[in-house]
Amino acid sequence: MTTEPTEPRDAEARAAGEAVAAIYRAAVPAMRDLPVFNPALDVAAIGFRARRDVAFGVIVTPWFMNLVRMPLDPGAAATQGQGEAVTHVLPVGALEFTIGRLDGFGGIESCSLFSPMFGFADQAAAEAAAAAALAAVLEPEQAADETPPPQAPGKMATTLDRRGLLRGAWMERRP
Fold first, then answer.
1. CB 40 within 8 A of CB 121
2. What does the pLDDT look like over 67-113, one tens digit per residue?
3. pTM of the entire structure?
4. How far apart are CA 8 and CA 11, in angstroms?
5. Best CA proximity match to 58, nearest among 135, 130, 107
């Protein structure tokens, strides 16, 4: 039995996450004056890791927070068209991702967590929520056992409920 080394693929996944974050950082000047822009936030790639043949993590911007997955091998791009939905079964359950394409990068799949981002007072709160959401998606039982992370005031659970994301992991921790 052969196993693929995890660490080199994780490094590729982190690099892919940073490449996508760089594309969104370049879009900040164009987004800054739009009513969905939270000036307290920056663009960040959170927790990108290799998951089989894709990079998987969270992109935080001043205007959205998305789970993102993208192929680690450029030739393995999605066969569906841009804007189409595709469902992936993850440890938390089945989640729907929307296929997109970034100029200068290629195909990505995104699953919206938050938009707009006004529920986050600062970057630390947004990044903590991103890391907690990623853990809840990939390791739902472990995330449910941990202390609840700092949350955007009252908005996180509402948004996650609305999208059907993380329902059990997040709802079970409530008193």
1. yes
2. 999 999 866 666 778 899 999 999 999 999 999 999 888 899 999 99
3. 0.79
4. 5
5. 130
